Amino acid sequence: MNSFTEFGLAEPILRSLAEERYVTPTPIQAQTIPLVLARCDVVGIAQTGTGKTAAFALPILNHLSANRARPQPKSCRILVLSPTRELSSQILDGFRTYGRHLRINTALAIGGVPIGRQKRALAGGVDVLVATPGRLLDLLQDGAIRLDRIETFVLDEADRMLDMGFIHDIRKIIARLPAQRQTLMFSATMPKVIADLAGQMLKDPARVAVTPVASTAERIAQRVIHVDRGSKTAALTELLRTEPIDRVLVFTRTKQGADKVVRGLIKAGIAAEAIHGNKSQNQRERALASFRAGRVRTLIATDIAARGIDVDGISHVINFDLPNIPESYVHRIGRTARAGAEGFAISLCSQDERVFLRDIEKLIRMAIPSSGLAAPSNQAQQPTHHQNRHRQQPHKNRGKHHSGGKWHGRGKRHLQDRNRSDNGNQTSRKNDPQSERQIVSQGDFAGVAFMQPR
Ligand code: AMP
Questions:
Q1: Which end of the chain is more exposed for a tag (fewer CB within 10 A), N or C?
Q2: Is 73 exposed, middle or buried (0-12, 13-18, 19+ CB in 10 A)?
Q3: Ligand 1 pocket: which of 19, 21, 26, 89 to mutate (most atoms <8 Å of CB)?
Q4: Contact 316, 249 (CB under 8 A)
Q5: Tens of pLDDT along 179-218?
Q6: What is the CATH number of the domain that holds 337?
Q7: Which residues contact 148 (CB under 8 A, 6 or more apart)?
Q8: Residue 376 sits in the same domain as residue 297
Q9: Model confidence over 24-43: pLDDT tens digits?
Q10: Among residues 86, 101, 90, 384, which one has the least CA distance to residue 217?
Q11: Where are the alpha helices (DSSP H) in 243-353?
C-alpha cells in the first residue's frame, strides 16, 4: 500500500490524515491496517517510532465510524492498555487527532491524577478508553467501568508491561473481557512470557513485524567506559562537558539513583532534571517540557519513566547504570538515532555490571567498544559508519530529515520536526509459532516508507 486512500478508510479519517500531511503509510501501517479492518487478531512486533499507533488507531476509528452505536454507561467499546502515563496520553492524542472529524468519545485512565474526574468521564460510557493497568484495575474495583462490551482490545508495548511487573494486572484485566472480541497486541520484543500470553489471548492471530529489536543497536555509535562505581558522577560530569551533545538522556536503574545524579550534576554546575515514577504527573510533564524546549539539555530517567518519552533530537544516551534486562539497553539507546543514523550511546560500566554488559552484547550480537572518557578518534572503534557524518553536520541540521527520504508526509502538530523511523533491515520472523499466519514481507522495508540514512 503506497497511499492511505487504498485502505478504504472513511472519508473523515482520510481528511484528518491529509491535514496531518501523512502521505505514505509506514511499513507497520501498510501491513496492519488491512488486517485490523478485516477484524483479524494481530500480533505486531514493532517499536515506538514506527507509526504503530496509527496502525491500530486508524482501522479502529474506521470500525467505530462504520458501526455507530451508543456506548453503554460505565462501559467502553475500545480499550487500549499501555504501560505508562505518557504513552497512554500520546495514544489518546493519536485517536483524537485522527478521529477529529468523527464524533467519538475518548477517555484516559492513568495514575498520578485524581480518579474522580475519570469516573465522571466514564459514567456515560465512551467509545475509546486508553488506560494504564493499575488505574484501570482501580476503576474496575470501584465499579466505575465494566469491560464486557469491549469490541477491540489493544495491548501496547506488551514486553514493557512485563518489565514493569504488570503481567498479573494484565491477566486480571483480560479475564474481564468478553470472549467475543478483536485483540491486537504490540511488542518490541517477544520474550517467552509474552509469546505465551499472546497464545492465550489472541485467536489465530496474523503476525506483522518491522525492525527486530537487535538491529537498532547497529545504527548507533556505542561505547562503554569502565569506571569504578564511585567515580561515575565525575565521569558523567566530564562527558557532559566534553561530548558534542544536543540533548542527552541519562539512564539510572533506580528512582533514588536518578535524584542522586541530578544532585551531583547540579553541584557541579550542570543543569539537569529527573523524571521517574515518584514524581507527580505535573512534575514529569514540566521536566519533559523543559527538555523538549531545550531549556534543560540533560534529563535523567529510569527505564519506566523513559518509556513513552517522545522527544526529538536526543543526540546522546548515557547509561549511568547498565540495565539488568538486556532488552532495556536496546530500548534506551533507541531513544537516539531516530532518523536511522545519528546517535551516540555511552555506558558507564562498573565491575559489578560486567555481567549485564555481557548479556547486552549477546543480545545485540556485537561487542561494544570500550574507551576512556574522551571520544575515540580512531574510527575503527566506532561501531557504525554514521558518526563522522554526524560530526560534520551543522548543528542546526542534525537529525533533520533528508529530503530524499520516502516517508515524506510529516504531520503538523503530531510530528512536526519529528525524526522518527526505524530504518529497514528487516528480517522476517520465520521461526515464530506455526499456528500464526505469516504476514511479514520479505526483504528490506527501507525503500518502502522509512527514511534512509544518508
Ligand atoms: P508512533 O510509532 O505511533 O509513536 O509514531 C511515530 C510518529 O510518526 C508519530 O509522531 C506519528 O504522528 C508519525 N507518523 C505515523 N505514521 C505516519 C505516516 N504515515 N506518515 C508520517 N508520519 C507518521
A1: C
A2: exposed
A3: 26
A4: yes
A5: 999 999 999 888 889 999 999 999 999 999 886 545 666 6
A6: 3.40.50.300
A7: 75, 176, 177, 178
A8: yes
A9: 898 899 999 999 999 999 99
A10: 384
A11: 255-267, 281-293, 303-306, 326-333
Residue type for 83, please?
P
- Identify residue 44 by its one-letter amino acid code: G
Number of other residues whose CB lies within 10 A of the CB of residue 403: 6
- 413 C-alpha to ligand 1 centroid (Å): 11
pLDDT > 70: what percent of the chain? Answer: 78
Ligand 1 near 448 CB (within 6 A): no
Stretch 49-55: mean pLDDT: 88
Mean pLDDT of 305-334: 85
* CA–centroid distance for 207 within its chain: 19
Instruction: Give the pLDDT of residue 218.
Output: 66
Domain that holds residue 197: 4-209
Interior angle at CA 284, CA 21 and CA 191, nearest 5: 75
Number of domains within the chain: 2
| 419 CB near ligand 1 (under 6 Å) | no
The answer on pLDDT for 232 being more than 90 is yes
For the cut 60, the answer to whether the pLDDT of residue 405 exceeds it is: no
- Provide the 10 A C-beta neighbour count for residue 417: 10
CA distances from 420 to 124, 412, 423, 450 (A): 37, 14, 9, 9
Atom of ligand 1 minimally distant from the CA of 53: 3
Does 406 score more than 50 pLDDT? Answer: no
Put simply, whether the predicted model's pTM sits higher than 0.85 gets the answer no
Q: 95 and 131 share a domain?
A: yes
Are residues 195 and 227 located together in one domain of the fold? no
99 lines ligand 1 (CB under 6 A): no
Shared domain check, 18 and 55 = yes
Specify the pLDDT at position 362. Answer: 83
| pLDDT of amino acid 433 | 28
Say whether 317 sits in a helix, a strand or coil.
Answer: strand
Residues 276 and 356 in one domain: yes
The verdict on the CB of residue 330 being under 6 Å from ligand 1 is: no
